[in-house]
Fold Peptidyl-prolyl cis-trans isomerase.
Amino acid sequence: MNYRFSAFASLLLAVVSLVSCIDPDQSQEIIFQNDLKAIEEYLEDNTLPTAKEFSVPSDGIYMFWETSVAPTVNDQILRLDTVKVNYTGRLLTNKVFDSSIEQVAKDNGVYNSQRNYAPMRTALGVGLISGFEYATSLMRVGEKATVIFPSHLGYGSSGQNNIPPNSPLIFEIELLEVTNGPNHQ
């Protein structure tokens, strides 16, 4: 009996020692490289609208405009500006996990009768996931775009509701309105 306890304690100590030797930054780098590979495969297998494109491949960020009102990206939306958007969020499997559009939610099995489906109004820089905020800040009112980004710009290793940890995300965004915040002089 004492031998089994000693063996179990030794095994537990070995596992703890091994886990403590893993560099968390290296783990994050591995996750990021896996995200980049998954995003590249998604882009190879899926056709996206291309009225205008923007990407930072080294960061794993890709945007494709379905509707564009100018040939360049916007640089006038600042932190604390309030935006009004319609959106649909998907995983790289194309499974919808959220939408501000009631019919899209119903069509994809994510409808919640307790929710008020309407365009989302929010200030940038105060609580949205950074990939979504970054993409929205590059848009102009009246534009529709699809953005794809790695998990660290989404919900990271924690995941969220029906979004698994370390999931690259896709958002279809329609920018309806922008109200300048205090950073505009």
Remarks:
- The domain at 49-179 is CATH 3.10.50.40 (Chitinase A; domain 3).
- The two ends are 75 Å apart (CA to CA).
